[in-house]
Amino acid sequence: MCEFKYQKVRFMAIALCIACITACSNTSQTAKLSNQTSQNQALATNTPPNNPSPISKPQSLTFAPPTKFQGKTVYQVKIPNNEKVIALTLDDGPWKETTPQMLDILKQNGVKATFFWVGTAIQENPEIAKQVVAEGHAIANHTFHHWYKQMDAATAKSEIERTADLIYKTTGVKTNLFRPPGGYLNNGLASYAKSQNYTVVMWSQTSADTDPKAKYQVFVKNVLRDAKPGGIVLMHDGGGDRRRTVQALPLIIQGLKEKGYRFVTVPEILEMGK
């Protein structure tokens, strides 16, 4: 009987010790978890996100070239110390499907581009036009109808000024950057633009993304092969089926980054120019 009572007391003592150890352990673990939670909260407050920051709306909605480039035609800009900066330009939009897709790619990569808009496309897609501006990209004039034909002064004026007015009424942007459709410099458009102190922005390299037979890999190869400091790259987000350009764009950005290039808008590259 005594032995039984002794065993019972012994078991109770052991159980009590175990309970004490478990309670202490739980208290310690709770403290650790609380401390870790506090540290995580501090990190969440002070550590920037891994994803690129969204591109903010530009402080100024007026894209005016420096005086030395007004009334001039520019293909490429001489950059001090040959710094590796390059400008991506997208023509013929805003376009219903491909422009938003390209905006997503540009945002994901922290890149700003310059969009050369056609008036009829703005009429069809005003909300996309507003989105492009809200995401901080530069805007330029690419005429109202995208005509290549020879024009008298009145027609040339209408093509450029109607587009300028529509850009302003739709987005609040004023721009003195102009690109003639097809790069035609002798059909009256460039002459009128220069008379109004526009900078006629051409390009130093093209993706050749209007080639209907070329694969998107060719667009990437063209841009990476011809890249140079102060270069202006021609691509298209509108004016047709641009799905291949959408495929090429992230690879173009990646390839240029690997070559050490930094992306700027046309207004920025003109400000940097000699």
**CATH topology label:** TIM Barrel
Q: Please state the oligomeric state of the protein chains shown.
A: single chain
Number of strands: 11
Number of helix segments? 9
Q: What's the story with the biggest beta sheet?
A: 6 strands, parallel
Protein structure class: alpha/beta
Q: In whole angstroms, how far apart are the ends? A: 106 Å
Which regions are unreliable across 5 or more consecutive residues at pLDDT < 50? Answer: 1-56
Instruction: Just name the CATH architecture.
Output: Alpha-Beta Barrel
Helix content: 40-55%
**H/E element order:** HEEEHEHHEHEEHEEHEHEH
Coarse morphology: globular
Question: What is the count of distinct domains?
Answer: 1
What's the pLDDT, averaged over the residues? Answer: 85
Please tell me how large the radius of gyration is. Answer: 30 Å
CATH class descriptor name: Alpha Beta
The gist of it:
The chain is an alpha/beta fold and 274 residues long. It is built from nine helices and eleven strands. The longest helix is centred in the N-terminal third of the chain and has 45 residues, at 2-46.
Question: How does this structure look, described?
Answer:
By secondary structure, this protein is an alpha/beta fold. It has one domain: Glycoside hydrolase/deacetylase (TIM Barrel, Alpha-Beta Barrel), CATH 3.20.20. The chain is 48% helix and 14% strand. It contains nine helices and eleven strands. Strands 3, 4, 5, 9, 10 and 11 form a six-stranded parallel β-sheet that branches. A three-stranded parallel β-sheet has the order 2-8-7. β9, α7 and β10 form a beta-alpha-beta unit. α2 runs parallel beside α8. The longest helix has 45 residues, at 2-46.
